[in-house]
Structures are given as C-alpha cells and as structure tokens.
Amino acid sequence: MLIHQTTQNGNYILQSNGRMDFKARKAFQSATQAAHASEAHHIVVNLKDVSFIDSAGLALLLLAGKECIEKNVRFSLCQPQGYVNNILNVARVKTQFPVFDTLEEALK
After folding, report:
1. How sure is the predictor about 71, in pLDDT bands with cuts at 50, 70 and 90?
2. Could you tell me the CATH number of the domain that includes residue 39?
3. Which of 12, 53, 62, 92 has the fewest Cβ atoms within 10 Å of its own Cβ atom?
4. pLDDT one-digit tens code per residue, 79-100
5. 25 three-state secondary structure
6. Coil, helix or strand for 90?
7. Residues 18, 105: Cα–Cα separation, whole Å
8. pTM beyond cutoff 0.85
9. Ordered DSSP codes for 32-80
C-alpha cells in the first residue's frame, strides 16, 4: 500500500492506494503517527484508490479512529469504492465514524 500524505487547513489527508491488509499495517501506522505528530485537528483517510480491504485493514481503521477519539482529533473516511464500500457497510464501520462520498464533504 502506498499512502500519500497532505495537509489542508488543519486537516491531515491520507490518500491510500492499493490493498489495505496485514501487509499495509506498517505504512498505515507510520502515516497515522505522522498525522498525530503534525497536531492536525482532523485526519481523513481517502479510500478512493483502495481496491481491497480485509479484517486486518478494518482493524487498522478502527484502531486509528479509536486513537483519534482518545486524542480529541476528528477521524473520517471518504470515497470508498465498490468492494471496499460493501465491506465497510457489512462491518458497520459507518456507525463508528463518518464516511463521506467525497473528499470535499469530509473537509467541511
């Protein structure tokens, strides 16, 4: 998994690409640590280019969201596509934190 990191008005955007699975854990954890170190008030994970997610990937998202809650930082997801969106729905991730259709909506 590749993760491109950008900031915009206090928002830290993680643009993920590829598979979100056990092999992605180090890259994702490193990116979320960098986001917290930046003292951003909102972390957005853009899933537009994530083609696959499994239970380990779901756990990464849930743990990142929990850490944000503990640090009083907003956490949201945006643009999940196809299979990834279906898995997020089945796992009821949308009851844990916001999932937006577009990056622009997430940044509001």
Report:
1. very high
2. 3.30.750.24
3. 92
4. 999 999 999 999 999 999 999 9
5. helix
6. helix
7. 23
8. yes
9. HHHHHHTT-SEEEEEEEEEEEE-HHHHHHHHHHHHHHHHTT-EEEEE--
**Structural domain for 90, as ranges:** 2-107
Instruction: Find all residues with CB under 8 Å of 10, minimum gap 6, and list them.
Output: 40, 41, 42
Q: What is the dihedral of CA 96, 101, 104, 105, to 10 degrees?
A: -50
If pLDDT is split at 50, 70 and 90, which confidence band does 1 have?
confident
User: Residues in the chain, how many?
Assistant: 108
* Distance (Å, whole) CA 99 – CA 44: 9
Query: Three-class SS of residue 96?
Result: coil
Residue in 30, 35, 29, 13 with CA at minimum distance from that of residue 106: 13
